[in-house]
Amino acid sequence: MAEAKSPSGLSGVLNAAWVRPFLFLVVIVVAWDLTIRLFHIPAYQIPSPGDVVAVLWSDWPELLRQSWPTTYATICGFLLSALFGIPTAMLIAGSRTVESYVYPLLVFSQSVPKIAIAPLFVVWFGFGIIPKVISAFLLGFFPVVVSAVQGFKSVDPDMVDLARAMQGSRFKVFCAVNLPHAMPAIFSGLKVSVTLAVVGAVVGEFVGSNSGIGYVMQRSIGTFDLPTMFAALVILALLGVILFWIVDRIERLVIPWHVSQRDDIIFAT
Prior knowledge:
Blueprint: H1 2-14, H2 19-39, H3 49-58, H4 60-94, H5 96-109, H6 114-125, H7 130-153, H8 157-165, H9 170-207, H10 213-222, H11 226-254, H12 256-268
């Protein structure tokens, strides 16, 4: 009986949600190292994984200290994206007039590279945290609005009419029908937004900053210190994954019924 259960136990471990990406990451790192060895790529072009790990180990306190400004700007920009994005989506989805005026401008704003306008924020607000927060906000705002608008517009009109027929006020109908139905789409936008907010914060640090992971990367590029630059990229990747995981945990607490259905579909495939 023990021998019969052991393969299923190993299969269960290999099919765990956190094991699959970890195994794929190991494959990528091994392929990275083998490519450098086989093609004799010099260290000033691509550092080896061992050099990056050595920098992470030796400079971990400094990298951790520099990651705090980036994390703070990312979280602030993301929260502002959610705070302004969801109400904006409610207005767009609830009024064709607002949609005709606002939605095209939102789409137009996404065609403007944020790296091109980030220097203006430095001119207007200085070299503090505000330009980084604004950059993070601008990158994270649009996904929240688009996803939330799609969620609010996908509500079944018959359900809304039924709730109104039961003498429900507009606010009560919105809280009981519209908002719960749109929550999966809203959280999808929030998960995209939180990762883009990391990019926005780094863009702000590239333009003008004396701290943060973006500043570390800019300084490393100037001195051709590629292992440190790759180590900074690893820190940014970890930051994005952690923030994405936090939003996903909140989604599981807020709308557990949708998450359970999604997980059943994923594991069924």
